[in-house]
């Protein structure tokens, strides 16, 4: 629950609340008025931390400090998350060997950057009668990636989507220990 949504002191709507004091001791169920008086007597706030419980759970704490710690925790979580982008490489089933090598090189670079790659084969006209040629091209791409030592996971095998056949490849998971070892 976001700190903006928390009710404190006289904003708490319930008649009775379960109170936990500043040291973490359970004080039990008491009226909101008594709980607010208890919090004010020690110079702190009464914060409703679990409004959906029956009765709602409230803690006696310094609200400013609590809000700061919650926001800091959110910033740290946001900093540690990684955004994975989806790149797409398109080709036709009658692609030349050199063009296929170039495309697989680009796919390897995208995977090295940590992006997922959607490899698509576009069929036009009579090519739709020979979709197995697209599967052969996708298999060649996978073989070249393996041959070049690119670490990858096949998220979705070749699948027809209208006039296109595509597969999704993602970078292989790298352990944190090997990343630290490489950086040193």
What layout of secondary structure does this protein have?
Layout: E1 16-20, E2 26-31, H1 32-41, E3 45-50, E4 57-61, H2 63-80, E5 86-91, H3 97-112, E6 116-122, H4 132-147, E7 152-161, E8 164-171, H5 176-183
Parallel strand pairs: 1-4, 5-6
Antiparallel strand pairs: 1-2, 3-4, 6-8, 7-8
Helix pairs in contact: 3-4
Average residue-wise pLDDT: 82
Radius of gyration: 29 Å
Write down the secondary-structure element order. EEHEEHEHEHEEH
CATH topology of the largest domain: Translation Initiation Factor IF3
Quaternary assembly: single chain
CATH architecture of the largest domain: 2-Layer Sandwich
Number of E strands: 8
Beta-strand share of residues: 25-35%
CATH superfamily of the largest domain: Translation initiation factor 3 (IF-3), C-terminal domain
Poorly predicted ranges (pLDDT <50, ≥5 residues)? 175-184
Q: What composes the largest sheet?
A: 4 strands, mixed
Cα(first) to Cα(last) distance is 39 Å
What is the C-level CATH assignment of the largest domain?
Alpha Beta
Strand order of the largest sheet: 2-1-4-3
Structural class designation? alpha/beta
Number of domains: 2
Share of residues in helices: 25-40%
Note the overall shape.
rod-shaped
Number of helices: 5
Subunit structure: Monomer.
Organism: Sphaerochaeta globosa (strain ATCC BAA-1886 / DSM 22777 / Buddy) (Spirochaeta sp. (strain Buddy))
Family: Belongs to the IF-3 family.
Subcellular location: Cytoplasm
């Amino acid at each position: 629950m976001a700190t903006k949504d928390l009710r404190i002191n006289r904003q708490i709507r319930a008649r009775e609340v379960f109170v936990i004091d500043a040291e973490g001791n359970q004080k039990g169920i008491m009226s909101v008025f008594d709980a607010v008086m208890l919090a004010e007597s020690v110079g702190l706030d009464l914060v409703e931390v679990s409004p959906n419980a029956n009765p709602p759970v409230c803690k006696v704490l310094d609200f400013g400090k609590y809000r700061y710690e919650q926001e800091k925790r959110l910033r740290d979580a946001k900093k540690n998350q990684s955004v994975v982008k989806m790149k797409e490489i398109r080709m036709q089933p009658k692609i030349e060997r050199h063009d296929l090598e170039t495309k697989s090189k680009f796919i390897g670079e995208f995977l090295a950057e940590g992006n997922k790659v959607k490899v698509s084969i576009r069929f036009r006209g009579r090519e739709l009668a020979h979709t197995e040629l697209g599967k052969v091209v996708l298999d060649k791409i996978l073989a070249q990636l393996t041959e070049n030592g690119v670490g990858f996971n096949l998220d979705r095998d070749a699948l027809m989507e209208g006039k296109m056949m595509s597969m999704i490849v993602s970078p292989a998971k790298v352990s944190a220990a090997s990343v630290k070892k490489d950086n040193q």
